[in-house]
Amino acid sequence: MSHDGGIRALRRDHDQRPRFRHEALCSSRQTGVVDQAASFVREGVTADEPVLVAVPGPKVDMIRTLLGTLADRVQFADMTELGHNPAHIIPAWLQFATEHSGHSRPIRGIGEPIWAGRSHAGLVEAQGHESLLNLALADVSGLWLLCPYDVGALGPSVIEEAHRSHPIIVRDGIRQESSTCRDSTAMAAAPFSAPLAEPDRYRELVFEVGSLASVRRFVSSEAHKAGCDPSRISQLVVAVNEVTTNTLRHAGGIGLLRLWRDADSLVCEVRDRGRLGEPLVGRAFPALNQEDGRGLWMVNRLCDLVQVRSLSSGTIVRLHFRLAS
User: Which tens digit of pLDDT belongs to each residue from 263-321?
Assistant: First the structure.
């Protein structure tokens, strides 16, 4: 498995703005989360700071209402669309930071990648994303990012994980350091080692050099049988072809492809004996002069969810494709 290019975070050594701040806003009531989020945004707008708010659609409307005319000075995004695949979120924050890198004033953001009703796989990847934010944005000076957690709607284990991925916890208006927050090494390892649920039944195909055509036919056939949207089957085939090609080039020339249906998605999993050492793989567009490293970036653009694990036994990449468009 090749090493996709890592995040080339914005570096401004001459910038005197505060370092990146990553905080979890925990409240037992949704209205409490929204009220505090709106207050945070209002403070930023009043100070003439650029603000990006990425929360689930209904909360976008609620925050807009609370801000009134100030909402016109805020950039909004529906996190259920932006963050359906959590790998898309870091590039959005990097773009926002880049757009405002020429100014001396700080910038603010609200990002809510975890909400009640997310699929289990989506939740796990969003939690991994929260850890990776600390690495990806560590050198982005001036960004203050607040991540709302609705304690009343999320389970205790989700809130405990928030304490492990956020250096600062805000509760009842009080900010304090998290006593269980991971260090940078653990932040990098956590998403790569999170357990993956095993399917009950699946189809599999061993592939090696010279068998990619068979892989593409196999994936196309299984996608049709599963009822995948015909307009997207070619995208699925391209994504699987990219991952299996990486296996053949960089992981010993042999791998295992497994496919199964999971709720409303078709899942394609590639296993090989390679190792990945870049925790931010596939989460930012590689540099124009970079020859290698575009694979998982492209795969993340094509799939609804991508799960990557690098274990002592090798690498696992799971691609999730919704059956309906």
Answer: 889 999 999 998 888 889 888 777 766 655 678 999 999 999 999 999 888 999 999 99
Q: How far apart are CA 63 and CA 322, in angstroms?
A: 30
**Torsion from C-alpha of 172, 175, 177, 179, nearest 10 degrees:** -10
- What angle is formed at CA 164 by the lines to CA 161 and CA 168, rounded to 5 degrees? 115
**Which has more confidence, 183 or 8?**
183
Domains of the chain: 21-191 (3.40.50.300), 203-322 (3.30.565.10)
Q: With a cut of 60, say whether residue 14 has pLDDT above it.
A: no
Output the six-digit token pair for 209: 């050099």
Q: How confident is the model at residue 164 (pLDDT cuts 50, 70, 90)?
A: very high
Does the pLDDT at position 1 exceed 50? no
Q: How many residues does the chain have?
A: 325
The DSSP line for 225-280 is: HHT--HHHHHHHHHHHHHHHHHHHHHSTTEEEEEEEEETTEEEEEEEES-----TT
Whole-number Å distance between alpha carbons of 189 and 114: 20
Task: Give the three-class secondary structure for 127.
Answer: helix
Which residues are CB-neighbours of 79 under 8 A, at least 6 positions away? 54, 55, 56, 89, 111, 112, 113, 115
